[in-house]
């Protein structure tokens, strides 16, 4: 059913909101905390000023604060270093995709205690471009695990494998289809093509589960971030981003790319755990322990 023929859904924009969205102005397209995406539209008719990026001094302070916080909650300096490195590579993947699809020049920002974001100058011209930008972070972010595997191969020691596992899990968790994580922007347009309410219900349901998971494991900042994002999306009347909607072929490709990216993340996590666990059963036990509630 095309967008022109289906009835207006409960979360579709009103005619007044559509007129406001069509007004000229600056469009910000962001990949928010821990590599997730936030969108903001401004209706200022003046020409936008290019984003100069984060001040180097504040970027350094933010990185130290974030690294220290990760070290505190994980109890491991290896995880802290791996998370910072993995975050940088993840965000750079978003930046490369943004620049490739005419949304740049994109900049990377480090957010104290939360993560990072890649910010562009405008929204994507189509939902298909938005899907590719969303998945570029987790897919490219897996490259950050290569130095850790090389270090383990030449120097040995489980610390290198723990770092690689942390990087894989950061990218895999970002694929959860819950706002504002990357997965919500990769699968959201596909669900909205069926009906906007289906997307809304799926995102909120998965988001609620992830929030409970974060709270039960003591990761309060992560849970609070997702809870605020869910609340904001519930209050927002316009659920779909601007730009040409997905075609049937692009919807199938979006699901395919999402599955391939998720399998790649799981594969890297498996490769990191196997030498430590010694068997597939041991790997499954480690993975279940990481993902279980209330550990």
The number of helical runs is 11
Beta strand count = 4
Poorly predicted regions are 1-13, 19-33, 35-47
Q: Tell me the domain tally.
A: 1
Verbal overview:
A four-stranded antiparallel sheet has the order 2-1-4-3. Strand 1 (27-32) and strand 2 (36-41) form a beta hairpin. The protein is globular and about 50 Å long. It is 62% helix and 8% strand. The chain has one domain (15-291). 41% of the residues are buried. It has 295 residues and is of the alpha+beta class.
Summarize the structure.
By secondary structure, this protein is an alpha+beta fold.
SSE topology sketch:
Blueprint: H1 15-21, E1 27-32, E2 36-41, H2 56-74, H3 77-100, E3 107-111, E4 115-120, H4 127-141, H5 146-155, H6 158-173, H7 182-194, H8 196-216, H9 220-235, H10 248-277, H11 280-291
Antiparallel strand pairs: 1-2, 1-4, 3-4
Helix pairs in contact: 2-3, 3-4, 3-6, 4-6, 4-7, 4-10, 5-6, 6-10, 7-8, 7-10, 8-9, 10-11
Features:
four-stranded antiparallel sheet; alpha+beta; 295 residues
